[in-house]
């Protein structure tokens, strides 16, 4: 879907959300965007960076933002902000549509203060600033979830808790990677001379860089903490498993030991019975048959003394 809104008498903001084939054809013909640059802008797997086409007078910012909600899967997605001649074109999808909402609010603020002199770069930098700050809430949310998991593992560590930790660690990998690439493109943009920026706009861009770098540091610290906690929990769980296996190994040997002891016991018992039978003859055979333990008491006593030793 494509829609337009005037920024000032010269520049127009164009929103492109989940473009269809007809939308793509309109973008290339009406706004004079090359197929190559358009492909970069709408690719959902494109990495954050800056692309320029001097011949077509196109400058493209691909910026990684959070998904629709920070609690979904902790993933990030690229959005495209293109300066093509007199047009500012934003490329979003359903999960990043909120970027258009932020841009529209910043456009209204800029127009309220400067009326017909609204600056497109000022609106873009203010939007990038807000998108960078959003990472703070996402990282804080991950830290909060990690603390909750740690509370549940005080008395008992489960596979589920380790799995939850790994899920959080995966989210932080997305955040950290996106913040690093965002920082690289922002720093590169700050050094570019092909973009005409006022002093205030340079300061705006530097503020965006500061916030993005702070987000990267927060994500790195949170990642280090989760890695250490997850490794510690995994080591404890492995230790408990090893102890359990040792116990089961010893326990599985007990029946064998018991059978061996009983075999020795009854061999002693019937040995004593045979000795008594030889001394008493067949006259007391019936009695001695049912009372071997009593006659073999000295043998039993000696046998159990050996076992105790």
From TrEMBL:
GO molecular function, one term: metal ion transmembrane transporter activity
GO cellular component, one term: membrane
Domain of life: Bacteria
Coiled-coil segments on the chain, per record: none
Protein name: Uncharacterized protein
Originating species: Pediococcus cellicola
Taxonomic placement: Bacteria, Bacillati, Bacillota, Bacilli, Lactobacillales
